[in-house]
Specification:
heterodimer; A: mainly alpha; 3 domains; two-stranded antiparallel ribbon; 16 helices; 59% helix; 4% strand; B: two-stranded antiparallel sheet; 5 strands; cytoplasm (chain B)
Chain lengths: 398, 390
């Protein structure tokens, strides 16, 4: 089958590799715009005012000097912020460059059996592993992986996933501050995407006040945060107002049980993660999971079982090396569909032993020779049974 | 990738935040100068402040242009990326593949992958982070394996030979001749080495090799006679090996790699594991399979159809056989379906093989109904067919 190598096919799987730093660059750029806009307005005003107050004789020379000092220090502040953004930008540019080179390396590979491809794939698997373990919050594992494979350092996005996990964990622990701060940072995206994340989190904060009997706090929180967005979430805002009339917990019949449920926090955590990933263009299952779900099926055959396969090194088809039958992956592959095949693939010159097992003729000869059997004897590599080679019967699978 | 690379180059040139900083520096310079001038010559104040005003206006324009440049190169780069990465790969994901309950299994598979790749540090961290229980002995075995491999790389065969000798019976049972291969390589190595590795003293290579052969080859006489006599004949050509008929067995450039490979393979086998990490193989196969699955997914969405069989992928994935085929596959030539335990391969008396269901169909469900083999003139009845195993 095809060993032809099409680099484009590999490149198309790697969208978040380049899009993530690009998106961070956009974010940085937006931040720079904000800073500039604010400080520019200030400087323009200050310059006009300095000139006018001097012209009108209102300002003394000392006043003018201190007006200039204010401008200078404002400008120095802007410079400091820009230098910081420049440093951030440099990181994203460096990462983008490393990633482009990583993908470009694919274009010099000619075959899937190339050693270079194996090396490339090893790097790929390592960075996929970092991404996957980070999604579970295994930061130490991720760091150790990067330490052991320094070449992937610029190819992984630790910070984003670490932050995401921290916020997710805080929500599961019943804290809203971290998530609300994140919402604040990404206000414009959330608005554009019509995300209800912030509303849901605020709503939960309100529920917590009610739950703990802090009615006054609940009312003021409701007024401050929920009323202003009542137009978008009208029904919900109206509905939860009635919550104050019920005391939580004691009343099994409360119509607000869903909101009082502890499951709500998990729901919020999941909503946050999906919103976060959508914003960054990160897939919900990890790229490792996506790759494995395809790869496990592509390798799986109806013969794949958890049982131990015979260990032989002579057949073309060495089932003892099958990854799907391996103790590591057999359980994981259980529920997956198997590969579609339209042609048989069996050892050449198939012969059958009296027990119904079929092997290539050469396979049996090689196995007998390696096992040091006397001439004319054959041994079933699977069952270990021995026969005279006269019992072999040629079969015609297709 | 060329368009991406081109736009990246543009971004690097005109998207640099350093320009902001130099714009700011320029205005800072102007402001500082105005301040100094006013300080030393207060009468110039009006003129200087007018200058400050115009510098600020110029600065606004300038930084505006810088902003425009950065913005435009950034959006061109973004567009190049959007164009390159149009497909949402998540659509090919099999949603039932990894339910949350499978997390530990996946973590375990990753930890095992790390151990067998020799990444012990990350593996230990993962075992801790994910609270996995993997017997220490597995890690120790692999540490041992990497230690033996390191020795092999340094052309020291002793640890490998000791290991193979300690597993002699198990290795023989699976048809391995690793131990003999190792001894043979040691013999050849001695024959080709004129300087003792440890002492650096010159050695009589012929004598050392011969002595080694006498001490070690005897147990292999029975099984590997042919190979042994070749070796000993080659011995006679020692002074002129390059031109001897034995040049291949002696000077194979990959001899050390080959032996390391089969050592790894058989070491792993005795642990009940394959030598290539299953996770690595599955990920490699996935990278090859995904583009095809994505294409099929797109077509099926366009035509509003779905997979007809949920047990089987909708298309054939062209994986290179040599790397990814581990089981013989039998596709029934009549029904074109792969045989399974439920629908196993059956051999008719003529030696042709079909799936059990096909057999039933050809005999109209009657186990004693005679029917003609679809591939030869022979006739038989289903009850004569026997179950075979590939």
């Amino acid at each position: 089958m095809s060993k032809d190598f099409n680099p484009e096919n590999h490149v198309l799987l790697e969208q978040s590799l380049l899009k993530l730093p690009q998106q961070q660059m956009r974010q940085t750029f937006k931040t720079s715009q904000k800073y500039i806009e604010r400080d520019l307005a200030f400087l323009n005003n200050a310059a006009s005012e300095a000139l006018e107050s001097c012209n009108s004789g209102k300002a003394s020379p000392d006043d003018s000097l201190s007006q200039l000092d204010v401008m200078i220090s404002r400008l120095q502040g802007l410079k400091r912020k820009m230098v910081n953004l420049q440093a951030e930008e440099d990181v994203y540019m460096r990462k983008s460059k490393a990633r482009i080179s990583h993908l470009q390396a694919l274009y010099s590979i000619s075959s899937i059996e190339d050693k270079d491809y194996e090396r490339w794939n090893q790097i790929r698997v390592n960075r996929l592993l970092v991404d996957d373990v980070l999604r579970n919050g295994y930061v130490d594992t991720a760091k150790a992986l990067v330490d052991a494979n320094p070449e992937i350092e610029d190819l992984v996005d630790m910070d984003i996933l670490v932050q995401c996990k921290a916020i997710e964990t805080s929500l599961r622990a019943g804290r809203t501050d971290e998530c609300l701060a994140w919402c604040q940072e990404n206000k414009s995206y959330l608005k554009k995407a019509r995300s209800s994340l912030e509303y849901e989190v605020r709503l939960q904060q309100y529920v917590e006040f009610v739950r703990t009997g802090k009615t006054v706090d609940a009312i003021s929180y409701y007024r401050k945060y929920l009323v202003p967005i009542a137009d978008v979430h009208f029904d919900s805002v109206i509905r939860i107002a009635g919550m104050l009339a019920f005391s939580p917990g004691s009343d099994q019949e409360s119509p607000y049980q869903d909101l009082f449920s502890a499951e709500r926090w998990n729901h919020l955590a999941e909503t946050f993660v999906s919103t976060h990933h959508l914003m960054h263009g990160i897939t919900m299952p990890s790229l490792l999971q996506i790759t494995l779900s395809a790869g496990l099926s592509a390798l799986k055959t109806p013969s794949c079982k958890a049982e131990n396969h015979p260990i032989t090194f002579v057949s073309n088809y060495n089932s003892s090396l099958c990854p799907i039958c391996s103790p590591e992956l057999s359980e994981l592959s259980k529920s997956l569909p198997y590969a579609h095949h339209v042609r048989s693939m069996v050892d050449p010159e198939p012969v059958m032993l009296p027990n119904g097992r079929i092997y290539g003729h050469q396979t049996l000869m090689d196995f007998a020779a390696n096992a040091g059997l006397p001439a004319g004897r054959v041994r079933d590599p699977t069952t270990g049974d021995e026969w005279d080679e006269k019992v072999l019967r040629r079969v015609y699978p297709s | 990738m060329d368009s991406v690379l081109k736009e990246y180059g543009r971004l690097q040139k005109s998207g640099d935040f350093g320009k902001y900083v130099s714009d700011i520096d320029q205005l800072l310079g102007a402001l500082q100068k105005a301040r100094n001038t006013i300080n030393s010559a207060p009468q110039s104040r009006r003129e200087q402040l007018a200058l400050v005003k115009s510098s600020t206006t110029a600065f606004a324009e300038k930084i505006g242009n810088t902003q425009k440049d950065i913005h435009s190169s950034l959006s061109k780069y973004s567009k190049a990326l959007d164009k390159k990465f149009k497909i949402d790969i998540e659509t090919s994901y099999n949603r039932s593949a990894f339910p949350p309950s499978s997390r530990t299994l996946l973590d375990r598979a990753i930890a095992m992958h790390l151990i067998r790749e020799g990444h012990f540090e990350p593996a230990d961290k993962l075992i801790k982070d994910a609270s996995l229980s993997i017997p220490d002995v597995i890690e120790e075995e692999f540490k041992n394996m990497y230690w033996i491999l390191a020795a092999l790389r340094g052309h020291d065969l002793k640890p490998a030979i000791d290991w193979a000798a300690s597993k002699r019976e198990k290795l023989a049972a699976m048809g391995s001749n690793l131990e003999f291969s190792l001894h043979r390589l040691q013999f050849i190595h001695y024959l080709l080495t004129t300087v003792d590795e440890e002492t650096g003293e010159p050695v009589n290579s012929t004598r050392r090799a011969l002595q080694y052969a006498r001490e070690n080859f005897a147990p292999f006489g029975e099984r590997h006679m042919a190979s042994l006599s070749k070796l000993m004949c080659a011995f006679l050509f020692n002074s002129n090996l390059e031109k001897s008929p034995y040049v291949n067995i002696f000077l194979s450039p990959s001899a050390w790699d080959d032996v390391a490979k089969s050592f790894t393979k058989e070491f792993c086998s005795l642990l009940g594991l394959s030598s290539d990490s299953p996770l690595y193989l599955a990920a490699a196969a996935g990278a090859i399979a995904l583009p095809t699955l994505l294409k099929v997914g797109t077509i099926m969405r366009e035509k509003h159809t779905e997979w007809s069989s949920e047990n089987e992928l909708p298309v054939e994935i062209p994986l290179p056989e040599s790397m990814f085929q581990f089981h013989a596959i039998f596709v029934c030539p009549v029904s074109k379906e792969q045989t399974t335990d439920e629908n196993p391969p059956m051999m008719m008396p003529c030696g042709h093989i079909v799936a059990k269901e096909s057999l039933g169909r050809m005999s109209k469900g009657n186990p004693n109904q005679r029917f003609k083999c679809p591939y030869c003139p022979n006739e038989s009845i289903p009850n004569q067919a026997i179950r075979v195993y590939f």
